[in-house]
Amino acid sequence: MTLYLIRHGLAAAGLDDLDPGLAPLGHEQAAITARALRKLTPSRLVVSPLRRTRETADP
């Protein structure tokens, strides 16, 4: 089994938001990561329930 650990894309800044989504750059980072992962054909993706991680997993 091969395990890849990937950090979420850049989150939007906001002092009042405890669960921010991705910033525009974070969406770009997620798209780049998705293209790279497609070549690896992972059998499963596991993400936390945080908004920024879900947005990274589904660009």
Report the sheet with the most strands, covering strand number, pairing sense and barrel closure: none
Distance between the termini: 25 Å
* Strand runs, count: 0
- β-strand percent reads under 5%
Low-confidence stretches: none
Cα-based radius of gyration, to the nearest Å: 12 Å
Total helices: the number is: 2
Q: What class would the helix/strand composition place it in?
A: mainly alpha
What is the average per-residue confidence, as pLDDT, rounded to a whole number?
Answer: 93
Helix content: 40-55%
Taken in chain order, the helices and strands follow as HH
Outline type: globular
Characterize the structure shown.
With 59 residues, the chain is mostly helical. The chain has a domain at 24-41 and 48-57. Helix content is 41%, strand content 0%. It has two helices and no strands. The protein has helices at residues 24-40, 51-57. It is globular, with a radius of gyration of 12 Å. The mean pLDDT is 93.
